[in-house]
Each structure stands twice: as C-alpha cells, then as structure tokens.
Amino acid sequence: MAVTDALARIHAAFADAGVTGRLHALDIDSGAQLDAGADQPVCTASVHKLCLLVTLHEQAAAGILDLTEQVECPPQSRTTGPTGLAAMLDGARLSLRDLAYLMMSVSDNAAADLLLERVGLDAVNRSTARLGLGHTLAVHTFGELLATIKEDAGPGGARSLADPLVVTRLRALDPARSNRSTPRDMTRLLAAVWRDEACTPEHGAAIRRILGLQVWPHRLASGFPFDDVHVAGKTGSLPTVRNEVGVVEYPDGGRYAVAVFTRTARTSALLPAADAVIGTAARLAVDALRAP
C-alpha cells in the first residue's frame, strides 16, 4: 500500500510542477524498488558524466591510465559551459582525477571532454555494457551534443530556444538520437558503484567521494534536508530537461539509489518548481521503500 500511495503522490507532484517525470528508486541492499516509468528511454544530458567517471576509474584499476596523469587544458577550443574550465579564460594543467572532480562537482563540460579525449566514447559504452546497462549509450561528446543544439536552433541562436517549436526539433532531446539511458539503468549503475561491483573498492570509494562533492542542492538533495542524511548525485540539464541521479544514505545504514528524469512544456531556463519536484519525488519514493 505504501508503494501504491507513493506512486500516486509522485505522479501528482510531477503534474503540479508542470513536468513529465520518469523515476526509479532502489533499496541497494534489499532490492526493493519503486517504478514510475523506469524503463522509458530518457536523454541523460550531463548525467552521462557518471558513466564516464566509472569508465575512468575502471581503466585506472586496470592500469590503463594513472589518475595523477597531468593534462594540458588550453583555453582554445574548450567545450563551452557556465562552470569550471569551460568558463575560464586562461590555460591550466590538471590531473585526470581533478578534471573528474570538476566534471562531477560543477558539471564542467570542458573537463568532461578532456577526459573523453583520454578514454574515448567507445570505452564508455563498453563499460556500461559490461555492467548490463542495455539501454544506456553515449552517442556524442558534450561538445558535439551542444553543437547539435546550436545547429538545430538555427540563426536565432540561444534566444530561439525560448520558442517551443524550435525546442521540438532539437536532436539533443530525442533519446533515439542523443546520449540516453533509462532510470532503471542508472539506479543499477549507482548500486554497482555502492556495492563495489563497478570497480575495485578503492576506486568505488573514489567515485562515491566525488559524487558526494556535487555543489547543487536544489534538486535531489532538496528532498532530504537533514544533517544526518547524505546525498551524493549528478545532475543533468538541457532545454526543458532537468535530471538527477544519486544515492541517499541514512544513519541507520539504509542506502537508496534514485534516478529522476523530467521534461517541461515550458522553455523557461528558471523553473524552481521543476527543480524542486525532483527532490520531492525522490523523498516520496525513498519514504515508501523505508516504510515498515
């Protein structure tokens, strides 16, 4: 009954926030789950950086690369973005692991593409296939993804993305033509990381640490405003798309992987209710899984 009631409340919360939502929540230890469109294909946006992070650590564990390896980060031809190296003006030199930190903590597109230059899209797809994520595929680098948006938007540029008709033609928002997954695949990936099945325990701990350093509190974490509850996650955003996947850990040892993917009809960049409903839906799902 708790799950049935939670599903009804989750769907109502999505409707009230003006979003179409897909969600999967999983008790990492018991396997109990809650499914609200968990097998629907979704555009991952920057959530796909989690797949890249796992690949990076998988290769480090195999001795293919050294996470302390230094990478030159020239300002020319950096992938654009509002954070991290993508927003900086001068050259820098960083280790692979520090690039990974920027990629995950502030969703730095430039850092992500520098890492993709090192490991390759094919390696990312091999990693997700190895973990049984049959609906997860990286099609583009993040620079390529942004380039499709620019091309599809046409001569009006970023301002034209306020037009719903323009947004409907964006390839980046079509799971068949963009980086994609399902909510269930993402909780499966998170569970593998938390169980040390994705990488060795040393590298699993490093992945969990980085996920815990994300700076954005306005989506998943907003549903768990407690000092003794830890939320580690990764957001993803595109026009009309707001996503987050992560793990919620309670002081009694409960661990819950949650993936929430949403789309809005409105094209506004700032929609606080659409951000907040990710936390609301996640909290409803986790509360249902924790119910006696």
TrEMBL record:
GO biological process per UniProt: beta-lactam antibiotic catabolic process; response to antibiotic
Domain Beta-lactamase class A catalytic: 23-262
SUPFAM superfamilies: beta-lactamase/transpeptidase-like
GO molecular function: beta-lactamase activity
Top-rank lineage group of the source organism: Bacteria
Pfam families according to UniProt: Beta-lactamase2
InterPro entries, per the entry: Beta-lactam/transpept-like (IPR012338), Beta-lactam_cat (IPR045155), Beta-lactam_class-A (IPR000871)
Protein name: Beta-lactamase
Organism: Streptomyces variegatus
